[in-house]
Amino acid sequence: MNSDFTIALHVMGFLASRQGLPVTSVALASSYGTSPVVVRRVLMRLQSAQLIEARRGPGGGSVLAREPAGINLRQVYEAVTDNPQFLKRHPGNAGTIAGILAEFVNDVCGEAERALLETLEAVTVEEMDAQVRPRILAEFCKRE
Amino acid sequence: MNSDFTIALHVMGFLASRQGLPVTSVALASSYGTSPVVVRRVLMRLQSAQLIEARRGPGGGSVLAREPAGINLRQVYEAVTDNPQFLKRHPGNAGTIAGILAEFVNDVCGEAERALLETLEAVTVEEMDAQVRPRILAEFCKRE
DNA sequence: GATTATTGTAACTGACTAAGTTACAATAAG
DNA sequence: CTTATTGTAACTTAGTCAGTTACAATAATC
User: Fold this and answer.
1) Could you say which residues from 22 to 61 on chain B have a Cβ atom under 8 Å away from some Cβ of chain A?
2) Which tens digits make up the pLDDT trace of A98-114?
3) Residue nearest to nucleotide C19 (CA to C1')
4) How many CB atoms sit inside 10 A of residue B142's CB?
């Protein structure tokens, strides 16, 4: 369980709130509280999944590649995860007690993981933005 | 994500199939394909959760502490897991952008994890045994 | 009581993973 | 040309995981 999904959600929420204005990896890293290289590794995966786009050079940064309503959190999770398993599988040899048990166990684990991913799938970046942006704006106004 | 839950399910399925006959950690380890000490560490947690009982000395071993119908897989999972989280949380400071985003993200992660655990909760050791034991017996008969 | 089988547990090892750092090439704006 | 930025490789440090070794505690059997 690494932090990539958490960072990726932070990135997607941040980019959504900026409505197309590019955000640099330095700004994202500073906001999240990590280093720019760590963020960029996550950004590369989000780019490969075509969820964001990046431009180099001055004024560059990342923006969402689609409408926030067209991106759900399962897509974000799968973009940054090689093997989306939350419960370890046991490779018991078929025909042994371990193999027969493992077959059942692996099925149950798969079903449980599916339930988790379907919950993520039901939430879009637009919904996240709708929940979060007003609170961010309120926080900024309070300070000025 | 360690192997404790996978091992624990193997143990519970094995013990259920023996219907009260004690099984040693050596037998369990050999069946699963790991070492007795690794299994015993899991057995200790299952004992603390009062899901199994163990007796020392010759003829000793572990047995289920309750009817298999009264044990579900969520209880097994929680018995062997300190912090049942599948998605990492971000401790963003309240009042910052990171904090506001983290609050939303942590809620969504909690909801998704709840969906997974509820799926495990819906399956009992008795159901596992009913699925697995006939296949184990069939496998043994085939060999004789 | 001695022997033996078994659990319970601590200490250690080696391999792997995660997060961060440093360094630098590639790119593009002005 | 200078500067800001992405993209990426190599390395470090800390932590986790599975397994091993060793041994004390317990209990059945002879």
Assistant:
1) 31-33
2) 999 999 999 999 999 99
3) A38
4) 8
